[in-house]
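Entry 14. Structure prediction run on the chain below.
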Amino acid sequence: QGVNSLDALAAHEDLGAAYRAAGSIFEAIMVYRRTLAERERIQGQRHADVTATRQQLAEAYLADGRPKAAISQYEKVVSDRERDLGPDHLLTVAARGSLGAACHAGGKMAAAVRLGEQTRAGYTRLLGVDHPDTLTASLNLANAYLSVGRNGDAATVLEDTVERCNATLAPSDP
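Output returned:
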């Protein structure tokens, strides 16, 4: 039997998050899959809550070591974010970064590099070169470069990132 209340759907997502936090990834995936199907039924495929649930499902797939399933979901998240928020919205840039990480984990290195470059450029445009999210995107891009043998590009990005981290981050920053 389906869920007919948005409050119940929110409670189901909380349950998925609790399962995930407890390390019960399989159970989290099952809850997120059911919640996604119910959200699509009740709210329609274009609702922002559907996209958010899809993102949680993708994160759970990636945590479970299933990058192909994560990529499939993240591609839809990126598409939804671009459609609903535009290509330069912070949530769209973040979704591209997540898709890039899933591509890297799934061995799709050309896509990981392309998405890493787009993510770094997006964060730089929106947040500036010294923002922690930009610095993290830079590290992810450098790792993608290393994975495809672009060692010189990786070194250039890492040198710049290390310099920026030393200049801008406090010792207590993550």
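The CA atoms of residues 58 and 73 lie 5 Å apart.
Filed with the rest of this week's runs.
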